[in-house]
Specification:
The chain is of the alpha+beta class and 233 residues long. The protein has helices at 17-37, 43-57, 74-82, 87-99, 137-148, 173-190, 216-222; strands at residues 3-5, 11-13, 106-110, 115-120, 153-159, 199-203, 224-230. It has a 5-stranded mixed sheet. It is elongated and about 80 Å long.
Length: 233
């Protein structure tokens, strides 16, 4: 730590801020050297490196944000999924989404379990219905083809909003979500493309919402069927 003499002859510390500042400059220099060395690496991998660097040195509070769901870039989700062999599936799902014009009804995320395909219930069912709408058959045929080419196990999950339902066949949201998931599973099997030992179905009712059930728009987001592509151990 540098010192200087005061008028009275005593030594006074200058604070040593130069050392801290020099250390910061060296860290930033290393950071930009790494950026240059990765100049030919894909943009997505670069973002992952930047996030890791920022988190480790903790310069910017809040880090480097990533969005999920429909807001996430296709390239980002694909790159993350490539580590688990999900990249080809993601590319096919993007093509299917665009082919059927389901930009608002179909979203996907990469979770700790694997790839999760979120499909709005309106793309598969009439309001409150258990049986699959005939208009959804071509779409499910294509999904069955994707599953048949994958080595992943697929769990089909039914979800509802929190509005109560009570019909002769669905006395609760538990029943509705479970029946819908099973009906989708049965249809996939009926195509003859999917192996039964790689499919499973579950219903979660209203108890795993992705949005608060406080507006019609949020409730519509919560009414969904999810395909979870789980990597084969």
């Amino acid at each position: 730590m540098a010192k200087r003499k005061s008028k009275g002859g005593s030594s006074v510390s200058t604070g040593g801020w130069e050392i801290i500042f020099t250390g910061f400059i060296l860290i930033m220099l290393c950071f930009f050297i790494m950026l240059c060395s990765f100049s030919k690496v894909e943009k997505v991998k670069m973002k992952k490196f930047v996030k890791s660097f920022v988190d480790s040195v903790d310069i910017l509070k809040g880090g480097f944000g990533f969005q999920s769901g429909g807001g996430a870039s296709d390239a980002m989700s694909e790159s993350m999924g490539l580590e688990e062999g999900l990249g080809p599936i993601v590319r096919q799902l993007v093509e299917i989404r665009d082919e059927f014009g389901l930009q608002k009804e179909l979203e996907y995320t990469i979770s700790t379990e694997g790839l999760v395909l979120h499909i709005s219930d309106s793309a598969l069912f009439d309001r409150g219905a258990e049986e699959i709408s005939p208009k959804a058959f071509p779409f499910l045929d294509v999904i069955a083809n994707v599953i048949s080419k994958s080595t992943h196990k697929v769990r089909i999950e039914g979800h509802t909003d929190n509005l109560p339902i009570h019909t002769a066949t669905s006395p609760s949201n538990w029943d509705l979500s479970t029946t819908r998931a099973v009906n989708v599973l049965r249809y996939l099997l009926s195509t003859g493309k999917c192996l039964p030992n790689r499919l499973s179905a579950a219903g979660f009712g209203e108890f795993q919402p992705i949005f608060p059930n406080d507006t019609p728009e949020h409730r519509a987001k919560n009414r969904r069927v999810e395909f979870v592509f789980v990597p084969d151990e």
